[in-house]
Amino acid sequence: MSRQWSEERILVTGGKGFLGRAVCRELVKRGCRRILAPGSSDYNLTKQSEVAEVFRAFPCDMVIHLAAVVGGIEANRKHPGRFLYENLVMGVEVMERARIAGVRKFVAIGTVCAYPKFTAVPFKEEHLWDGYPEETNAPYGLAKKMLLVQSQAYRQEYGFNSIYLLPVNLYGPGDNFDPETSHVIPGLIGKLMEAKRLGRPTVTAWGSGRASREFLYVDDAAEAILLAAERYDEADPVNIGTGEEIAISDLARMIAEEVGFEGEILWDRDRPDGQPRRRLDISRAEELFGFKARTALREGIRRTVQWQLLQGENR
Fold this sequence. Notes:
Blueprint: E1 9-13, H1 18-29, E2 34-36, H2 48-57, E3 62-65, H3 73-78, H4 80-101, E4 105-109, H5 138-158, E5 162-167, E6 169-171, H6 184-198, E7 202-206, E8 212-213, E9 215-217, H7 218-231, E10 238-240, E11 246-247, H8 248-259, E12 264-268, H9 283-289, H10 297-314
Parallel strand pairs: 1-2, 1-3, 3-4, 4-5, 5-10, 6-9, 7-12
Antiparallel strand pairs: 8-11
Helix pairs in contact: 1-7, 2-4, 4-5, 6-8, 8-10
C-alpha cells in the first residue's frame, strides 16, 4: 500500500450516495479511521458558506468529490438547468475551498457523459474535446467536464494536486430504483420484476434497444478510485470501466433471465436511445495505477437482482 490510510483524514462528498457508500466501505477496509462522508441533507454544497463550513469542521488531507445530481435520460431531459447548475457549482466551490484549505490531494469524479456524441469507439481520453456531448445529457456532462478544466487550471497556477477520473455507467446493490430517476439497469430490473410479479406478458423498454453501453460494478468503481488516490498524481484524465459493451436489447434479455421474466420485451422507439455507443479504452488505468475490473456483468446483475428482491421481502 502506497499510502498510510490510517493516518489520513478523508472527506468524501456525496458519501451517503450509491457510489459514496461503496467508497467509504473500501476506505474502512484499507484501515482509514477518519472519514467525513456528508450527504445532501447535511450540507448544501452549492452554497459557498456551507462548503466553507465543511472544511472548517473537518480539516482533511484528501477530498474524494463524488457529490452530484444524477439520473437517467428522462431525468436529464426534465432538469437540464438543475443538472448543469448544481453539478457545476458544487465542483467549483468544493475544489476552491479544498485549495484554500491546503488539501494535499483532490480526486474529482467526472462522467462518460462528457464525451462527444459520436466519439470513435473505444473512447480514448484524448478524444474528450473532439465534439459536443449527446444532447439529452449534455448539460450534466459539460458541468462535470468543467471539473477537469478546473483541476488542470489549479494544477498549473497553484500546484494543486487534483486528478480526474471518467467512470462509465455504474450499477450494483444499493442503486437508485426510482422509475422516474433511475439509470438503465435498475430501471429494467424494476420493470421486469414488477411484470413477473403481476403476471404481465410484456414489458416496454425505452428506445430501439440497439444502443450500447458499458457498465461497471459499483465496488469495482470504488476500488478504481482508491487505487488512483493512492498511486496517480498527474493532470491527464483517466477512463474507468471494463472495456466491454453490450447492446441494451441484450442487456434487457440478460436481466429478464436473472429476474425470471419469460414474457416479451417491446421497444418504444419514440423514446430516445441517448448516445449510440459507449465503450472506453481502459488501458491507461491499468498502466498507471493497476486497475482492472473484477466483476463480470452477469454476476453483478445477479447480485443486484438478489439485493432488490431482498429489499422487497423486508418491506
